[in-house]
């Protein structure tokens, strides 16, 4: 039975997902720059703005984790699963995540950030 509250678990998971979102967006930015798109700048600016928003959110997540004495570390990765160690207020819990679930969640977050940025 986990001792981690749902809100705290969500924050720990964001500490996993948001850096991955940044990695994907950074690679996409490089792909845009190397592409044959005629007007690259609007796409680059859009992705850069989304990256700034993700970085701000990641900063807030890290601040929250520090204040609540929590952290997350990747401990193992194979073809199907990635294991993370959640350090939570003096307790240690290992959590296995199915890699396609991680990919889907990162994709969901990117879509959400794109939609937020497009409407603001």
From TrEMBL:
One Pfam family in the UniProt entry: YhjD
Annotated protein name in UniProt: YhjD
Record organism: Bacillus carboniphilus
């Amino acid at each position: 039975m986990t001792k981690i509250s749902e809100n705290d678990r969500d924050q720990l998971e964001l500490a996993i997902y948001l850096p991955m979102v940044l990695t994907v967006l950074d690679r996409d930015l490089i792909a845009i720059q190397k592409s044959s798109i005629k007007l690259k700048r609007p796409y680059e600016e859009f992705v850069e703005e989304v990256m700034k928003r993700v970085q701000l959110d990641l900063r807030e997540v890290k601040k929250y984790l520090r204040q609540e004495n929590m952290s997350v570390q990747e401990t193992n990765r194979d073809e199907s699963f990635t294991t993370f160690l959640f350090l939570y207020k003096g307790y240690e819990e290992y959590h296995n995540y199915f890699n396609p679930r991680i990919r889907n969640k990162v994709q969901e977050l990117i879509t959400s950030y794109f939609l937020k940025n497009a409407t603001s």
